[in-house]
Amino acid sequence: MSLVITRSRSLVLHAGETLLEGLERTGHVVEYQCRSGYCGSCRTRMLSGEVEYLSEPLAYVANGEVLPCCCVPVGTVSLDVGTERDYESDGGAYRTQSELI
Ligand code: FES
Fold this sequence. Notes:
- It holds the Pfam family Fer2.
- There is one protein chain.
- By secondary structure, the chain is an alpha+beta fold.
- The protein is built from three helices and seven strands, in the order ββαβββββαα.
- The strands form two sheets. Strands 2-1-7-3-5 form a five-stranded mixed β-sheet, covered by helices on one side. It has a two-stranded antiparallel sheet with strand order 4-6.
- The chain is globular and about 35 Å long.
- The C terminus is likely disordered.
């Protein structure tokens, strides 16, 4: 079982679901384009845990980052990602993923 902890929620990934698909299903805001590890648009900060890539991504991934479109958690992971409500409650202070790059 893969548990994902985010800014305000936790979720369990369904069988066969990527990390991105699980985040989308539960209302999280994650930018994406290729959904295959090429573009890096979905780059997300991982606060703790470990992921396994379904295939080796071509986009650069620094330590402490993941590409949720093409990976699954190994056990429990904690991500710095939130829902639209999380972003609104921050009064606009929280930046989108692309602004963090
Ligand atoms: S959406 Fe392109 S690398 Fe994830």
